[in-house]
UniProtKB/TrEMBL annotation:
UniProt keywords, alphabetically: Ribonucleoprotein, Ribosomal protein, RNA-binding, rRNA-binding, tRNA-binding
Family assignment from sequence similarity: Belongs to the universal ribosomal protein uS12 family.
Molecular functions per Gene Ontology: rRNA binding; structural constituent of ribosome; tRNA binding
GO terms for biological process, alphabetical: translation
Subunit-structure text: Part of the 30S ribosomal subunit. Contacts proteins S8 and S17. May interact with IF1 in the 30S initiation complex.
GO CC, one annotated term: small ribosomal subunit
Organism listed in the record: Candidatus Dojkabacteria bacterium
Function: Interacts with and stabilizes bases of the 16S rRNA that are involved in tRNA selection in the A site and with the mRNA backbone. Located at the interface of the 30S and 50S subunits, it traverses the body of the 30S subunit contacting proteins on the other side and probably holding the rRNA structure together. The combined cluster of proteins S8, S12 and S17 appears to hold together the shoulder and platform of the 30S subunit. With S4 and S5 plays an important role in translational accuracy.
Domain of life: Bacteria
Protein name: Small ribosomal subunit protein uS12
Length: 147
């Protein structure tokens, strides 16, 4: 237990929270780079919250094998986000049209059997086309309603 004199000199420090998805944090604009704020266009002000989605450009598209009990070739992409950070993102659904220099939208959401993959690419936005022939759970995969 701290003495009163120690508390007067130092005081209690607040506990720092952890950030689960660092890639979705903070804009890299020159003016607000040091402040680490994001611009919220609805409230017309800069906030310290992270973003739900972020745009990025694919650097490489490749496959990776999952952790132990599972066996597959999972499709992943290395993405450079608009805040200059590089992340590894999972490409959901069967088949994709992504290649190097494709512009994609990235959201949070990890793959438990892929180490270091904490993000997923949103299908049906920018260059990532929706999954062809998808009839159920279409909104997750950016598929249009079949005629």
């Amino acid at each position: 237990m701290a003495r009163v004199s120690q508390l007067v000199r130092k005081g209690r420090s607040k506990k720092r929270g952890t950030v689960r998805y660092k890639g979705l944090n903070f804009s890299e604009t020159t003016k607000y780079k040091q402040l680490q704020f994001n611009y919220n266009s609805i409230q017309n002000k800069f906030t310290k919250r992270s973003n739900p989605l972020r745009r990025g450009v694919c650097i490489a598209v490749f496959t990776r094998t999952p952790r132990k009990p599972n066996s597959a070739l999972r499709k992943v992409a290395r993405v450079r986000l608009s805040n200059k950070q590089e992340i590894t993102a999972y490409i959901p659904g069967e088949g994709h049209n992504l290649q190097e220099h494709s512009v994609v939208l990235v959201r949070a959401g990890r793959r438990p059997d892929l180490p270091g993959v904490k993000y997923q690419i949103v299908r049906g936005r920018y260059d990532a086309a929706g999954v062809e022939g998808r009839k159920t759970s279409r909104s997750l995969y950016g598929a249009k309603k079949p005629k």
